[in-house]
Amino acid sequence: MTNSLNAPLARLIAGQICLHACMAGMRMAAPLLALQQGYSAAAVGVLLALFALTQVFLALPAGRFADRHGLRRPVRWSVGMAFSGAALAVAFPVYPVLCLSALMTGGAAGVAVIALQRHVGRAADNPTQLKQVFGWLSIGPAVSNFIGPFAAGLLIDHAGPSAGSLPGYRTAFALMAVLSLATWFWVRHTRELPAVALKTGAARPRVRDLLREPMMGRLLLVNWLLSSCWDVHTFVVPILGHERGYSASVIGAILGAFAIAAAVIRLFLPMLAAHLKEWVVVSMAMGITALIFAVYPLMPSALTMGLCSVLLGLTLGSVQPMIMSTLHQITPPHRQGEALGLRLMTINASSVMMPLLFGAAGALIGVSGVFWVVGAAVGAGTRPAWRLRPKTARPAG
């Protein structure tokens, strides 16, 4: 990666971390406050779903907005939306307002990430650099998923007169608001890339045109299957652990091992980018994931489940930079924001709906059966993943 890209990319990653940490901290603190106020688990589930729901509806318009206006304007709107959402929770920490805050901070994170991904993809000069920049950019959410909840938890416990008091929650929400403003500090001086010239009289772009492209259809299918693996692991492991009598800390350690492994592999991907082919990495990841899902429910102890969790984190953690690199190579430059929005929309729609499907399936075939069914589907997806190999790579940006 050229030195000219290093400093701007570092600033964009810092900005991404701040805004995503705002959303992640709100996503941890708001449900806890709702539970403390006596709301049911179902109400908390609705609150959590709202963080992803806005992104389902905003993703495509946000992508098109980024295609027209570049980086800074979408990020500025995102910062304003996230700050307003967190500030509302500070002023009115009641359930209906917390739901509005979830919609606003979740939507803001989605809009910003589309603009950031589009910008760094266009700034890359070749496929190797695409894998490098998306490898580095993918580390941001892993860091922010630790910083946001950890900082919010500390303030909830220690910023008020007693642990879990309302002033502590308000202080935590205030910090999330400040974090969102810090995003603009990092991004505000980023130089916009030249706009993509469109043909005069060209027809208005439609989503169906993107979906008709065979490569895009395969990419979205593969991305959805792999995203479902993240969801099923997060959903099924606590249930499986509870059935076996494991404590909450043990179950948390198993899930934490997955997150750490996913972050670690992303640290090494930029260094290995020149030696990796996107379709090879994605195909191998799908095959290995299918094997891990086949044996995961058969593991006899928490330690062996933790080992599976680490292996799964290493495998799935390697995928996102490869998916993003492929997307930028197969998508016309003037529609890359829209394609990113389409990808984010499918992922978040899955995150809203799949837990409901997993729950119904688990009641019918058991949690082990859910692992095996999803593993079989992912294994079948190795064929379309291998066919993601581009005949001729589209120039980056």
Description:
The chain is mainly alpha-helical and about 400 residues long. The protein contains 15 helices and no strands. The longest helix has about 45 residues, at about 335-380. The chain starts with a helix and ends in an 11-residue tail after the last helix. The relative contact order is 0.15. Residues about 395 have low confidence and may be disordered.
Overall morphology: globular
- Counted by DSSP, the helix tally is 15
- Overall mean pLDDT score? 83
Order of helices and strands: HHHHHHHHHHHHHHH
Uncertain regions spanning at least 5 consecutive residues: 393-397
Structural class computed from helices and strand pairing: mainly alpha
Number of beta-strand segments: 0
What topology emerges from the helices and strands here?
Blueprint: H1 3-36, H2 41-69, H3 72-91, H4 95-123, H5 127-137, H6 139-158, H7 166-187, H8 207-212, H9 214-243, H10 248-272, H11 278-295, H12 302-317, H13 319-330, H14 336-380, H15 382-386
Question: What is the gist of this entry?
Answer:
The chain is mainly alpha-helical. The chain has helices at about 5-35, 40-70, 70-90, 95-125, 125-135, 140-160, 165-185, 205-210, 215-245, 250-270, 280-295, 300-315, 320-330, 335-380, 380-385.
Q: Keywords for this structure?
A:
397 residues, mainly alpha, globular, disordered C terminus
